[in-house]
Specification:
Length: 408
Amino acid sequence: MSVAILCGGGPAPGMNTVVASIAKSFLKNGMKVVGLHHGYTGLFRENAKTEELDFMKADMIFNRGGSYLKMSRFKPTDEDFEKNFNLKLFRDNEIELLVTVGGDDTASTANRVAKFLQDKGYPIANIHVPKTIDNDLPLPDNSPTFGYTTAEDAGSKIAATIYEDARTSENWFVIAAMGRSAGHLAFGIGSACHLPMIVIPEMFNKTEITVDRIVNLVISAMVKRKIMGIHYGVAVISEGVFHELSDAEIEKSGIRFTYDDHGHPELGKISKAQMFNELLDRKYKEIGLKIKSRPVELGYEVRCVTPVGYDLVYCTLLGNGVYKLFQEGATGCMVYVGKAGAVSPLYLKDLENADGKIPPRLVNIESEKCQSIINNTLQYITEEDYEAAKAYVSDPAVYDFKKILNWQ
């Protein structure tokens, strides 16, 4: 009997810790461990690239960054399930459990795999391990997804260096942080580094996200700092705000994009930091604001760093938890480890929406934690600043933080 493990999506710190811990747990209990390279591709191809994982391999990789098992963003179609599912792989290796490691897309596909196996009557269990530096999988009690804590730590160290550069050169920097659907990483980094402005999609809970509103939020911080006699700063923006822009807003921006087969702009192929900095530069010239800013992209730099102690322990417990759930007969679920270390299953069918996908967990912008940062750490124009702000902008109300977001 054996267990198969695959890793989907992009890397996150702790991938190897999870895989190695799963391997060690099952090997200790007499089962063979098969690693599938290239994500879900191997489940829907005749010649899957597999590798048997022994204790020495597991012990060699458990504390390393990156992913020993090669990853893929391959998403199987309905036709792939009906015509290309590689059941032979499972039969030849006597696989009783498929473990998938990944984020929301990987979890959603894992849900489809679990349903498919159940509908076809195939006796193969499926357990998912939730991973993403975006921290946007709906785990209970606000528990982080593995990799997020390390990514936040690494990102904060980079942002702190950028902030010091801003102070030294008396310039502004614009950081674009990863976070396709939610702003957890940007908000965490901005909070840790006391950055004067954070922009995430969840802040636009009472108004539409537009290019002008994003730009004006950053200008608000810049003008406020000028009033304070501070001529430098850093703003961090979640890439998710760009993904939430309408096609009309993207066209209005004037930025040149390539387009996919469906006519949608391919945002993933451009630097979000460069794009936003260009929009800001236009605004400086338009309103006569004497500021220089530099773009910094932050994302790939934090995906393969060595996991911090928290994630090393957390990922070990997740890997061990997979074996526990398997022994208990759980399938079609995510493994969840609570803050006290207790392991329990989160069934994917209970988390999916009407489309069969796992919806992202968003930042609770109205929480006491977020409001504390917004009200006490961020710096922006309020009504009390209007008179002083007139030295820099003709209509300060346009850059009033709460009015921009329709929070008043």
